[in-house]
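Pipeline run #58 for the internal structure catalog. This entry was flagged by the ingest filter as a single-chain record with no existing model, so it goes straight to prediction. Upstream metadata was stripped on purpose; only the residue string is passed forward. Reviewer on rotation: M.T. Logging verbosity set to normal.
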Amino acid sequence: MICESTSLSKYINKSSNIFFVFGPEIVLKNNSVDLINSFLKEKSFNEKKIITESDYSKIESTILENASGSLFGSKIIIEINHLKGKIPKEIVNIFEMQDIKKFNDIAIIIKSSIEKINKNTKWVKLLDSLGLIVECNKLKSYEEKAWVKNQLNFMNESDARDYSTRIADIFSGNLIAQQNEINILKLTYCEENKDKKIGFDNAEFLPYQLEDKIIELDTKYALRITKSIKKNDDHYGPLLVWIIGKVINTCIGSHQDNISLEKAGIWKNKIPNYLNFIKKNPLKKMLVLQKKVYELDLASKGLGGISKDQFWQELDNMVINLTSN
């Protein structure tokens, strides 16, 4: 059976527990795999084994070894990641395994990088008879709006309609950017504001307030600051990048050199929050983000090759990364 990713919920329970997810739209592929995993969890599949390219030779033995579930009576999901090239023989062999459809204690999810399939090839016909093929194509404009609106099911109907139109228009054709906006809204949207228009927050903030909210790990308030400054004083973008860089560099200095926060110029009343922030943000994570700050700094000066909206989107992503665990 073959279905579009946008119709997956209608077909997910109409096939055996074998799923093949492919197509050019990575966001839809990720969402489809998440939906399949949630569906299987409801059917008591509580364990998972992930197989990557280096372990393709073990696919058949892994399936046979787990065909009767685990020693603890759990059903098992075998998730196979295919990241490049044609479908390898080791994966095609799955569809030719004897009684593969009768192995009720395992479920197989194959997430493939291929963008198209030939429905007349032998392995596709075999798979079509065994399980569910999920096609994740690029969406048309009207489909994007419907998809975004479905993702905003945590909002009231009116706000979901308004936000879906705005997001689909601003980030037309870019589902990754649309997904990022949705993720931010999940953190910042509040039902009590349902009767107010998009962009209702007219409060004005000073850029330096962002430092306080980041080290306080206050994601919602920090995002409120960046969005307000974007709306009212977007020329402060480079300053916000500098502030975020200061927080990250202070954290790295403390991790690497055990530098006194007071000697680093941190006010005494901020030191407790900084210590808590440093404890929750390991050095490895901060080093990665330090590189990202450099890229954002170039972008804020028009040297990074990204659009203005993408700059603010990346800035929000950085805030979420710093304040969420």
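catalog note: Strands lie at 2-4, 18-22, 45-51, 75-82, 106-112, 132-135.
catalog note: Residues 99 and 130 are 10 Å apart (CA to CA).
status: ready for reviewer M.T.
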